[in-house]
Amino acid sequence: MTRRARHPRPGSSAPCPCGRGLPFGECCGPFLAGGDAPTPEQLMRSRYTAFVVGDDGYLRRTWHPGTRPARLDLDPAQRWTGLEVLHTSGGFLHSEGTVEFRAHYCFGGHEDVLHEHSRFVREGGRWYYVEALGRP
């Protein structure tokens, strides 16, 4: 069962949580509203934004069916505080891609960082998150 977002989404003119410096309505907002991200990086950024707002439905929809968990339980006490994209591969004309990133968060009063190298595939014109290749 998919639950609604636990945190309010930013207004369309507010800065997007993904850190690109664009307004939410011109950045990740259209993807969370149902549009398809055109590159692995944009999908990763929109998935980060979905974690920020607690949109588990979007996270599941953009997770490849072959690796998607049966359910996803996001902890509302975990606050995502920043994203750094370090390296990307794949794009408009590719069928596979990767994104290395650092996602900063606060949980239980402690700040931490998730450093991950993620794999994405494009099927039927749509990008999907497949798996973490490991933490560099």
TrEMBL record:
Residues 39-131 form the YchJ-like middle NTF2-like domain. It comes from Rhodococcus indonesiensis. InterPro entries: NTF2-like_dom_sf (IPR032710), SEC_C_motif (IPR004027), YchJ-like (IPR023006), YchJ-like_M (IPR048469). Belongs to the UPF0225 family. This is UPF0225 protein QT969_18050.
